[in-house]
Amino acid sequence: MLFFIQILNIILPIVYGISCFFYAQYFRSKNEKTAHTSFVFLTVGLFLHLVFMLIKGYHFQSFPIRNSFASLSMLALDIAIVYYIIERIKKESTTGIFFLSIVVFFQVVSSLFYQVSSDHDPLLSNPMFGVHIALALLGFSSLAISGLYGLMYLMLAKEIKKRHFGIIYDALPPLETLSDMGKYATICAIPLLGLGIFLGHCWHYKMRGVFFTLDPKIITTDVLWIIYVSTWLIIQRRKMSGMLISMFYFWGSIVFLFILGMVKFFSSTFHRFD
Amino acid sequence: MPSSRIALLGRSHKNASVEIRDQLSLTAQMISEFIQASQLQDSPLDEIAILSTCNRTEFYCVSKQCEQIYPWIIEQYSKIKKIELSQNALPCLILFDDNVVRHLFAVASGLESMVLGENQILSQVKSCYDLLLSHAKKQAPLLNRLLQEAIKSGKAVRTETALCQGAVSISLAGVELARKIFTNFSRHKVLLVGAGETSELVAMHLRNFGATQFTIANRSRERAEKLAAKFSAQIIGLDEIPSVLNSVDIIVVATNSQNYLITYEQVERVFRERQRLLLMLDISTPRNIDPRIGLQWSEVFLYNIDDLQNVVGANIKKREGEIPKSRAIMDRFSKDYWTWVTSLEVAPTISKLVKQFEEVRENELKKFVHKVSPTEYKQMEKLSNGLIKKLMYYPISSLNQMSANDNVDISKIDLISDIYQLRKVEKNNKVLKKK
């Protein structure tokens, strides 16, 4: 089984790399055949990646993020999954190059620094904790993707407004499409993060007998998620679109991820249940 | 190369006034009569294909008596179109052989068009090819293949370069901008202010990209009704414009009004509630939309005629930049065409035929080298030699006879090359040699 893990560890960055190459070609030439090829390679990459994660999980009897480099692979998988769903819904491949570049980068780093050692945090052997992490990572990936779509929208809108019909104008899809893609990413992010946070609380209840604790990281995550969802609901209710909602996608994800990153950096109590 | 030459006589927007072009233009029916006349015994032509559009009328001919082509065409004009062409009406553009091939490829690619890279010409070349196929009783292999290659070359230029990309008319430039903002026009309402030609053109392009919900506001109701009938549009008066501003997403204004028809205050009222994108195209001189609107709201994209003209100018420059790339593609197809033409010569065909039969013989014999005795092998060699010579006798003597009588039928040579796969075999041999 270790042999398969090692083989897939080499194959994955190659397959994603090929897909990324074709997405770059499509970005440049807008040839539909290239878009199809890149999507096929992305599908194959995703399938192999899922197999890779399942085999790793089964072999090491733990959720497959035993160290930072393994987490990068998990992040690559999450970004690829969310992007795959959005592309399937919108049938728009132009933005694939941006996300696949990130996927390739994460997967290459993860594969290069891959370690066979079976040492891991015992927490990772618990399925409930594994699902909590998987959902949270998927949620954060979706959030980051919606932020990137927000950024693309703002850049393109600025180009059109200023009558700069350059490379961004030529290459990116219409504003409405970018807005829709950002919306789908946000629609993925909200429930995934919500479920992830809820499972985290359940885990806390299981370990300590209480559903909630005054841990700064837990409070920050909960508050940020509530603010994000409330803002999103207000925007939906007012049927807002265009520039404002794209600013929300962009700044919302930046603020959410930045604050969480800061809290994680300055506090050391996160996910310690001993 | 057969003794026939490919020749081109014609006139286009580059060298003829619209009066001369009108005089020369031919309908599909007339073209079919030209083709049929070219196949009569007294015709100096072996093949003819005619490309007649509003910007050009060109005669692509294959003939052994090129000097007879012009008088023949003049004669046909008087018979078929019943007009006497003036002395200098036609032969402004006379090209031969490779220049004809390159010219037709350039025409099909849109390089010779009035608007660089326009798309319609490719379908016109296709129609020219269809007319040739449907009306030529005799085969016209050289022009048949030439038109096929021209269509392929035109398609390749369109897919491999950006020669035909980007709008080059004001109306299309406006729609191109709209396509960078909205994905699906069927979901959006369009307000046309003015019912003139410009409004109609923009509406037509928008409809081609899926727009279905049109509202027309015009001073004259009668004119608005005419346009509304074409686009199943709703009609309103100019004074009703403020009431629909909240529900429309694309506004096209093209009138001769001397005042702003859409004012800052009207839009300000709408944007107290509205937060959706709004595209405004002001194709009027003087402007009919207050320019402050475009600066005030981030959701409003307002463009005037100068902006659209700049888009057109930039696109034309981009297209011009693609010319060298397009020429390279045309060279590729031209080379393919002449390779094919060369394959139709009698002597090389015979030598390729002999070579191929010989190869088959040798390969089959090789299989028996170690299976039979040397004496038996020699006998087998003799037998196979005899067989091959007998099998080749009739095709070769028929080809030689054609050549001797100066009566080369290209279609027969083409058939022989196809049946024995001579081009494929030659290609494989070249690849093997290279390796």
Topology record:
The complex is a heterodimer of chains A (274) and B (435).
Chain A lengths: L1 H28 L2 H29 L7 H23 L5 H17 L14 H35 L5 H5 L3 H34 L7 H22 L5 H24 L8
Helix pairs in contact in A: 1-2, 1-4, 2-3, 3-4, 3-5, 3-7, 5-7, 5-9, 7-8, 8-9
Chain B lengths: L4 E8 L5 H7 L3 H11 L6 E8 L3 E8 L5 H13 L11 E4 L1 H12 L10 H16 L5 H20 L9 H12 L7 E5 L3 H12 L4 E5 L3 H11 L2 E3 L4 H4 L5 E4 L10 H7 L7 E5 L9 H5 L3 E5 H17 L1 H20 L3 H21 L7 H31 L5 H10 L2 H13 L1
Parallel strand pairs in B: 5-6, 5-8, 6-7, 8-9, 9-10
Antiparallel strand pairs in B: 1-3, 1-4, 2-3
Helix pairs in contact in B: 2-3, 2-5, 4-6, 4-14, 5-6, 6-14, 7-8, 7-13, 15-16
Q: What keyword list fits this structure?
A:
heterodimer; A: 274 residues; mainly alpha; 9 helices; B: 435 residues; alpha/beta; Beta Polymerase, domain 2; Rossmann fold; 3 domains; 6-stranded parallel sheet; 18 helices
Number of distinct helices of chain B: 18
Number of domains of chain B: 3
The level 1 CATH classification of the largest domain in chain B is Alpha Beta
CATH superfamily of the largest domain in chain B: Glutamyl-tRNA reductase, N-terminal domain
Calculate Rg of chain A over CA atoms.
20 Å
The percent range for strand residues of chain B is 5-15%
Sheet having the most strands of chain A: none
Q: Average pLDDT of chain A, to the nearest integer?
A: 87
